[in-house]
Design brief:
Blueprint: H1 2-32, H2 36-60, H3 66-86, H4 90-117, H5 124-152, H6 155-176, H7 188-192, H8 200-218, H9 221-228, H10 236-258, H11 265-284, H12 288-317, H13 321-348, H14 355-379, H15 391-400
Helix pairs in contact: 1-2, 1-4, 1-5, 1-6, 2-4, 2-13, 3-4, 3-6, 4-5, 4-13, 5-6, 5-10, 5-12, 8-12, 8-13, 8-14, 10-12, 11-12, 11-14, 12-13
Length: 402
Amino acid sequence: MARIWLLALGMFAIGTDLFIVSGLLPSVAGELGLSTAAAGQTVTVFAITYAVAAPVLAGVTARVDRRTLLVAVLAVFAAGNALSAVAPSYAVLLISRVVAGAGAALYASTASAVAAGVTAPERRGRALAVVYAGMTTAIALGVPLGSAIGEVASWRWAFGFVTLLALATLAGLWPSLPSVPGRGPAGIRRRLAAVRIRRAPAALLTTLLWVVGTFTVYTYLGAALDRAGQVGAAQRPWLLLLFGAGSFAGVMAGGRLADRVGPAAGPAGSIGLLAVVLAALAPALHSAAGTAVALAVWGLVHWCSFPLIQHRLLTIGGDDGDMLLALNNSAVYLGQTVAGAVGGLLAGAGRLGSLPWAGAGFEVLALLALAAGARRTVNSPRSVPDRAVPESARRTRHGAGG
C-alpha cells in the first residue's frame, strides 16, 4: 500500500500546482509587470494543456512501461515547475505552465490506472481513492502551505516547493513500483476510439455535468460569501480548510463504497445527494455556522463521487480503461471551463444567489446522463464490445462457454 500513497504524493504535488497559482497572481503580476488578467492566463494555459494533453499523450505513450512513464512524466512536471520558479519573463512562464500541464495530465491518468492495476480487484476502489486523496489534501493543506511560502518568500519559492514534491515522488516510486507493461501497440487513433465504447459517452458527459455543478458555485464562492455578508475575510481560510477536510473524508469513503456497490448505483446515489447539498447551500450561506457545515458536507459528497465515477469508467472501459480515465480528466477540465462561463454569466447578471440552484440543476442533468447510459445498457444486451472487456474476464467467459 506504500506505493499507492507515493502515487498519492504525486497527486498532492499536482493538486498544489493546480490550485496554488490563483493566490499568487498578484505577486506574479507585480514582479513581471503584468495585469492581473494577463497573469491569470497562466492558469488558463495550464488547464487547457491538461485537458488536451491527457487523451493525446495517453495514446502516444500506450506502449511504454507504466513505471518508466510515471517517472518520466514526474521529471517533466518537475522541470516545468522549476522553469516556472526561475522564469525571467512572461513568455517563459507561459511555456513552463504548458510543460507542467502536460506532465500533470499524463501523470494523473497513468497513476490511477497503475493503482487499479497493481491492486486486487476487491480493493481497487480504495486504491483509486487513496491516489485522489492526494488531490483533496492539496486543497486542504497544499494550497495554504504554498500560498504561505509565497507570502513569506516569493511566488518563485512556491513553484520550487511543488518541484521538490514531484522529485520526492519520483525518488520513491522508481525503486518501489514494479514494472507494469503498457497496453500494446495500438496507435493514438485506436486509443481515442475508446470513447465509442457503449456507455462511455454518457459516462463522460456525466463527469462533465457533475463538475459544472460544483464549480459553477465554487469558482465564485468568494463573491457569493460577500453577497451573503455572514462570513468575514479572516474566517474564509478556515472554511476552505473545512471544505478540504470534507473532501479528504469523501474521497476515502467513495473508494470504500466503490468496492461494495454497483458501478451505476454508487455514482447515482452520490450525485443525487450532491444536488440536494448544493440546493441547501443557498439558505445555508445566510449564517456562518450554516456555511461551515454546508461547505464540509459539500466537499465530502462531491469528492465521494470521484472514485465511484472512476471505478465505473474502469468497468466500462476494460482494457481501454486507462484511456477512458485520460478522457475523463479532459471532461473534468472542460467542465471547469463551462462552469466558469456559467457562473460568470450569473454573477454578471447580479444573480449570485442563484449559483447554488444552478449547480444543483447541473447535478440533476448529470443524473439524467447517467440514467441514459444505464438504460442503453439494459436495452442492448451486447452493450460492451469484446475489446472493452478485461482480458481475464474474456478468458473466463470463453472457458465457461466450452
